[in-house]
Amino acid sequence: MTIASNSVAEFQNLLIDPLGKFLAISDEIGGLVKEQCKLVGKALNAQLDFLRLASQSQKPADSKLLELLRPTSDLITQIIVRIYDQFFDILYTNNVFIFLIQSIRDKNRKDEHFNLLSSVAEGIAALGWVSVIPTPAPYIKEMVDSAQFYTNKVLIAYKDKNAKLVQWAKLWIEFLGQLQQYVRRNHTTGLVWNAKGNALNGATTTGLPPPPPPP
């Protein structure tokens, strides 16, 4: 097994544990949490496909890369808008889009699981590491910290009251932390492509898109 295929297999293992346990508990919680986390699973499987392609391919031109990365961007947007009502601006920094929120849906603000939903909306942006050069792992750490702001609220609110929600919060942060370590080991200064791999032509896959050119 090559180094590249080892890297893909390692990422795939993350989707089994702890992510698999996290998604299973999300199903048990139900409601918006279940709906949102199903999209999380789809987004990460899409990124697995993208990493598999990268391990077999030369880095494509930017225009092709944008096409390859588009589908997971759509999934991430769906995950975020489960929580946020509208966006008043979009900024692009280090090839990752950042949404600045104008307001939060009243119905979700009052939802008992609002902090769970918010932690996922913050943490899912970690998938943008594929577009970050030269420090993707520190970028993920920033997303972990943002997500942990909300999971800490879950831990405080449900300690000794709801073991399932406490475990859910711990598993989400555990997964994000392991994702950070995976990227630090395998893609230290940015996504690794295969210099001896195939040239990409019409293939499509997924990930988070780099920013569009300035208007």
Task: Lay out the secondary structure.
Blueprint: H1 3-16, H2 19-29, H3 31-56, H4 62-81, E1 84-93, E2 96-104, H5 106-109, H6 114-123, H7 136-158, H8 163-186
Antiparallel strand pairs: 1-2
Helix pairs in contact: 1-3, 1-8, 2-3, 2-8, 3-4, 4-6, 6-7, 6-8, 7-8
Structural description of this entry:
The chain has a single domain (about 5-185), classed as Serine Threonine Protein Phosphatase 5, Tetratricopeptide repeat. Helix content is about 60%, strand content about 10%. It has eight helices and two strands. It has helices at about 5-15, 20-30, 30-55, 60-80, 105-110, 115-125, 135-160, 165-185, and strands spanning about 85-95, 95-105. It has a two-stranded antiparallel sheet with strand order 1-2. Helix 2 packs antiparallel against helix 3 and helix 4 (about 60-80) runs antiparallel to helix 6 (about 115-125). The longest helix has 26 residues, at about 30-55. The chain starts with a helix and ends in a 29-residue tail after the last helix.
- The share of residues in helices is 55-70%
Q: What ranges have pLDDT less than 50 throughout 5 or more consecutive residues?
A: 84-107, 203-215
CATH topology: Serine Threonine Protein Phosphatase 5, Tetratricopeptide repeat
Number of helices: 8
- Mean pLDDT score: 79
Which CATH class is shown?
Mainly Alpha
Q: What is the end-to-end distance?
A: 45 Å
N-to-C series of helices and strands? HHHHEEHHHH
- Mind telling me which CATH architecture this is? Alpha Horseshoe
Rg calc: 17 Å
- Counted up, domains total 1
Question: Would you report the number of β strands?
Answer: 2
Shape type: elongated
Could you give the order of strands across the largest sheet? 1-2
Biggest sheet descriptor: 2 strands, antiparallel
